[in-house]
Request: fold
Amino acid sequence: VHQTPLLQVLADAPDRPLTTAAEAEEEYFLFRLAGLTFGVVSQRVREVVRMGPLTPLPRSPSYVLGVVGHRGEVLPLIDLLRFFGQGEAKPHSRSRLFVGDLGQYLCAFLSDGVAGLKRVVVSQRLPPPLATGAQTEFLVGLVQTKEFGTVNLLDLTKIMTSVRSKAVAR
Amino acid sequence: MTPAAEREVELLVFEVAGQRFAVDLTEVHRIVDGSVSEHVGPVLGRPRSGKRALVFGAGGFEAHLVVDSVEQFTRVAASSLRRMPPTAGAPPLAAGVWLGESPVLLVHLAALSTA
Reply:
């Protein structure tokens, strides 16, 4: 049989891809709070806004700092540190709020600043520490980065669902 | 019938402990001097001067809310009012928010006596 160039190449062709399949990645929105860097899946973050006038709510949960008006909507402003029972965040002029969006409802979260967006290879995520506590309950894992050091990856959906269910239970 | 967006309500805006609040004017029977002996307590914060008190109906009786100052009566469009978001975990006294120059908490006075 005459070996055409094509057949010669095919004879040596591999049976499976030489390169490994692209690893699954997720894009995280990173923010700073109390000297730590946190990340939440960026799909759940609608936008980032400056700290505007805050209207406190008497007799509301301690982690609800109040409500803010944003684009004609009223959003509760959540302090994640209080929510986790890890202290309290202090709003300041450089504070930024990011708006979490679960579709049916929105929440604003206080941060000390935005670090940016980061693609995280899922397989490089480290599991959450075994320690117990409110924070670990909502931790998806940790990831080491060159720019930001250790980033705590949070499950924003779980946090907002918990905020919602606690509010309804009151 | 007037579309909901074109309806207006009259609000009474007042201040307690440096914070502005508003109530439906129809809930307020009258405004008196703040030196009342019985009142609903510092449910909205501890008044600084307590110069005025709002008198309102609560369960067939009259109750008093001591405030620092009464700022204004204002007529606002229903379209500038918002219900309290369900995620806020707000008590019944927090009826909603008036989106004025800055958000103002709308207080349901009748709910104060049970707060």
About this structure: Chain B is about 5% helix and 50% strand. The mean pLDDT of chain B is 90. Chain B touches chain A at residues 19, 43-45, 82-91, 93-94, 96-97, 99, 102-105, 115 (CB under 8 Å).
